[in-house]
Amino acid sequence: MNELINRPEYLNQLIQNKDIDLVKIVTGIRRCGKSSLLDLFHQYLKNTGIPDINIIHMNLESLRYRNLTNYLSFYDYVSERIADSGKTYLIFDELQAVEHWEKAIESFRLDFDVDIYITGSNAYLLSTEFSTLLSGRYVEIRMLPLSFKEFLTFYDFWPAVTIEEKFQKYLQFGGMPILRAYQFHEARIQQALEGIYSTVILRDILQRNGQADSVMLHKIMLFLCSNIGSITSPNNIGAILSHEGDLSVHNQKKVAGKTVEKYISMLRSAFIFYSVGRYDIKGKQLLKTLNKNYIIDMAFCNMLLGYRDTDRGHIIENIVFLELIRRDYRVYIGKVGNTEVDFVAEKPNDKLYIQVTESMQAPETRERELRPLQAIPDNYEKIILSMDRSYINSYNGIKSLYLIDWLLS
User: Fold this and answer.
1) How many helices (H) and strands (E) does the chain have?
2) Residue 62 DSSP class
3) How far apart are CA 14 and CA 38, in angstroms?
4) CA 227 and chain centroid, separation
């Protein structure tokens, strides 16, 4: 077994929910560390004195469980192994392999003294029939690839390497934990990422959606990667793809917006992309049209398109988006009159307005970035994040922070 590296933010969420009568569901893209998290939790249970007989830990993608393909055989197998006394901890990895697993899970809750933890690699795990059956009886812990802070604990660097150089590696190679084994060997990392990407595309998307066209899916993926952080609409994407031609999807000449929307929704369900809606700050309402899309890890864009340093503005915007999600904010794109604020980040009793830019040095950039924030009529915190290590840390109350400091704060 690989050496496990602690990911305390996630482990603590499991520990805080331990023995609460809710099913704990860890979701996230393949290979982002869900199985390792369950291993860490298993270790934690043993360290706190839970006997082995009271822990049942199964990875359903292992051939050892190849006969447990439906909920009845799964239920019978597990029931026979539940301890006679004390609470039993049920830890199930890659549970989507069992058909109608949710019926078995609900039954374990009713029939035994158990505490249940599960993972799955796609949002079909939380599809409607499941949510209905377990409504209000589960808590979802969304796992993301490594934050920059975690990245620094995962890798060993020479003492002479500066924080900027480490950040540059993060921009280029992203935060998939599995890549640590390759110690920044570019060709090996490229192969590993291609493997993860094709598994997600083939197993989590194309197998699930019989009608889906792999060429079309790939084209839309490339389009979204090339337009990270740009405002787009499905109709607009469809028009651009139709214009490029060579997309004879079932001999259709035009790609409809509805089709594009369907494919983007598949990519969201496999946790590859997030779509972020726009919010009219002055009118205080969500706008129906035009989203932005952000990818779960920039490494996939770099793998598909090649790493381009010219895109740093969009790359850091994507990193800020993911960091806000990690910090439990709900995130929108803000519209203020005719201008845009990169992010409106909300919690029940907190709100932040954030602009992200590569540099604030040029007066026209500074003016452009400050204008939308200055136009917001309320007193919530307003921040500009950039790669400038600047002595100016405020513009009339708008904070200016060095992005790396903010990520590590």
Assistant:
1) 15, 13
2) S
3) 9
4) 18
